[in-house]
Amino acid sequence: MDSEQAILAFAALAQSTRLDVFRLLVEQEPHGLPAGEVARRLAVPHNTMSTHLAVLARTGLIASERQSRAIIYRANLPEVGELARFLLQNCCGGRPEVCAPLIAELSPCCPPATSCEPVHD
Predict the structure, then answer these.
(1) Which residues does the UniProt record annotate as the domain HTH arsR-type (predicted)?
(2) Total structural domains in the chain?
(3) What mean pLDDT do residues 65-71 have?
(4) CATH code for the domain of 31
């Protein structure tokens, strides 16, 4: 990921409804949600939601797939990972022991060997 792509992603997420949409879609992985359900859950008019979904899709942070008559939206987790790697690529000047707590905070919900379900303390 280059700086321009990162700036576009952050700009898309810098609007409250789009940030809410993105977070909702991340919660719904791996199944995603139909566009109408996203609009309903966030109490946003359908035409307004379409615009927000289009902005997020152009950045690559979300993807859509037609299933019968519905369009299902999902978070594009590989792209989200690229964005996180972009932010952390030079983390702590090559001193991994300084970055370890940050990395640990980023991975509490999805241990690699299990499904992606939240860990409850």
Answers:
(1) 1-95
(2) 1
(3) 93
(4) 1.10.10.10
